[in-house]
Amino acid sequence: MFELNDTIVALATPPGRGGIGVIRLSGPRSLHILRKLVACDDFDPEANVLTLRSLIDPATNETLDRALVGYFKAPHSFTGEEVVELHCHGSPILLRTIVDLTLTLDARMATPGEFSLRAVANGRMKLSEAEAIRDLVDAQTDAAARQATRQMKGEISNALQPLKDELLKIIVRLESSLEFVEDDLPLVEQDQLVSSLRRLCLECERMASTFSRGRLLRDGIRVTLIGRPNVGKSSLFNGLVGHGRAIVTDIPGTTRDAITESIGVGGVPLVITDTAGLRVSTDQIEAIGVDRTRREAADSDLLVVVIDGSEPLTEADREVLSEAANRRYIIALNKSDLNGFSVTRITDDRSSIVSVSAKTAAGLDGLRAAMLKPFTNGNANGEGLLITNARHHDLLMRAIDSIRSSENLLLDHASEEIILVGLLNALRYLGEITGETTSDEILGKIFSTFCIGK
What we know:
Blueprint: E1 7-11, E2 18-26, H1 30-37, E3 50-57, E4 62-72, E5 83-90, H2 92-104, E6 107-109, H3 114-121, H4 127-138, H5 142-152, H6 155-179, H7 187-208, H8 211-219, E7 221-226, H9 233-241, E8 259-265, E9 268-274, H10 284-299, E10 302-308, H11 315-324, E11 329-334, E12 353-355, H12 364-376, H13 390-411, H14 416-434, H15 440-447
Parallel strand pairs: 1-6, 7-9, 7-10, 10-11, 11-12
Antiparallel strand pairs: 1-2, 2-5, 3-4, 4-5, 8-9
Helix pairs in contact: 4-5, 6-7, 6-14, 7-13, 13-14
């Protein structure tokens, strides 16, 4: 993973057929391999320009493809190394053949995220910016993509740099006092240092507090529809996702397995699951579906309890509400289009009740808004810097605890040597966010979550 002196290769576009497939090489032998593939040992491509060339199999002298080839000279490339890109026709067999050829020419397959790892190792980007590339690739909504793009441009590292600079000033002053015993801290200066540490803490807390919203943009909310059979869960599910994903009939127990779809609401991904109706069943297959419903409910962030508002509340409805009682849930009172519908079928002080009609789509916008409300308090947009990465949030919280510990020691007139321990730890934690102080083991874990070719 951390051998940076060899040449790596990978497909940079998704596997499968397509109009184009891009093969990327990075490392000291990239240009040499390109020259072998175009059968021209003195080929001197202009940097940052795509050139149309024939790719040749060196063993058989057979033309494999006519492709656009690009050369990016170190250090002005994505990885900071010699980089070559081959823009070929998108045949999986052709692409596999060309990649295999590069392996015979002394390249090796890249590991997940190794191109981005080399970019970080060669100072082309901060670790937080590389992680933002992964988040951009994985983004499920426009808001998540915008936030990832902002972080990819260095917004987190830019926000952290003044904090690290201020922390370093305090550390230098305390180390100076430690070096020169006679240079004790005056009371006025001690108060100034305490004030500075408190400001640092507040700024770190402000950044960390955005994680609740940032996590929603990145990971989304898991929502599970539950209810007794025939209350309209599948119809409601189809209405929410916008197409007939689930089978709908008048026969109770039609849905026997969990069906999941993702939608975007207000910039937040919602992962919605339709489930089998909760009831005691002698049908073995339906019973398995009911068990799966309970497992999905246990793993979800929010339950939507669907109740037929055109009929009186049944004992089965009460049992479903009882199962949801210890979880975060809202109630969808369905079938508002029927004459027998009544908004007074149920009252519940613990959750929102939304009247909807899966048949006419009335109330669906209100239901979508009600799904977001418990998590966003009406503020779900991605404006401003948001911490979207759990690793960043954890490191910010560790830095806050370390700064607070040093502040208390400073107020207790502890020795500078002891006070510095917490401040140096805080500086290290902030550095781990951007990669300056991150261990190889942690880097390996982070980049293993990237796709191959990125």
